[in-house]
What does this fold into?
Amino acid sequence: MPYNVDFDETDRIVIVQVSGAASRDDHHRARDEAWRLCRENGCSKALIDLRELNTSRASTLSCFTFGESVSQTAPNVRLAHVLPTDVKSKNDVKFTSTVEANRGLATGEFDSIEEAKRWLLGATCAV
It folds into this structure.
């Protein structure tokens, strides 16, 4: 499976890991599962681990559309994106994150899980 979604009960963060060349449907299923876990656990923070993501087949339009859908479906969730290592994928994630931020979502981009967690845990945001 190209994604995994889990709830970290200690830090009260939903953690999404996406790897490989996940399809549009995979991204939407992971998003929906993450928001479901946020609602069920009264959580407003999500760490999106994209270090192993490959967006070689993604278009600018698909990145835009996904960023727009994220901001519409979870407007009160704070997102920490852990960036991929390859340049195209990193740029695609940054673009998607910018779309989310331009639509009012609190987002951050980080090179490590530790940095992302520090940012999420230092922030307060109501559900």
Q: What stands out?
A: Residues 24-41 form the longest helix (18 residues). The chain has a mean pLDDT of 90. Helices lie at 24-41, 60-73, 87-102, 113-121. DSSP finds four helices and five strands in the chain.
